[in-house]
Amino acid sequence: MIDGHLHDETYLSSSARRFRGSRVVGRIYSIHAENTDAFVQKFDSVESPSEKNQIFVSRYPQSRLMDLLDISEIQCYWLTNNQDNGAMEPSLEKLNHFIDATIESGDGIIFIEGIEWLTSLHGFDSVHSMIRLLSEKISMSKWCVYLSISPTSFDMRECARIYREAPLFESNQHPSISTAQQSVVDENPVVVEHSANLEMDLNDDGTPKLVLLTRLPKKGFSKQILQRRILQWRRMGLDTSDIESSLYSEDIDGIYSDYTAIEEKIRRATELERYIIEHVNDSQERTVAFFRIRQLTGLDELEKQYFLE
Known about the structure:
The chain is an alpha/beta fold and 309 residues long.
């Protein structure tokens, strides 16, 4: 028995189906997902006007999420002990404080994953108490919260207790395109020439050759366009951590300035790589140089070494 109910799948299934199809503002829901990819794929099934605020609290950094969703349209926070931009300590107190401050005004949606990890850190009872308290607070707001729940990570009693506070949400919609795919369909014409899935020629060691992409004009520039350009650079093996932090900013002029700075670095890196491919025969020297080029470090030294000989 679970609080007067039979300890079987019939009870769990019935309790999990109480909210199927349409969401209700001021509620907290569970979404079945075994991993981050599966959770993100279900974002599109949640009806949300484009002007609503959307927040994603994840176990993974923004750089990892860029391959999964359009981070220019959703605020991403990384549950980690690292002191980085957009980082949030995996403390129940800190998470509660963040949500309290967020739902005080406005409206929107908060997606939260990592419940299993938080449980391993703080214990199920503490996490369940947080969910119950969150359910009470969210009911007095215009926000909705969606929790990523992996049923295989909890026993049946724990699942029942979670669903009591955060019923399972199952949309009747059948999304035809994922968030990441939609960002490619909506791509601005100025970058259609080079899609995020740009095929690359390979060097002899199997690394992709650097390609100098068309410079993005300031007119029409946006964080969404920059995100796609960053994905292209990353697929060439370039370290884009410096420019990724700019995506947290709302200063488009400042972001564009950061973009032009790294674009110039990549231009220099591309010219260096071409020279090395044509003129450097020592395999070890080439390997070391290619690594430094992709880290976008030591470009001044490499230019002195090869161009001022």
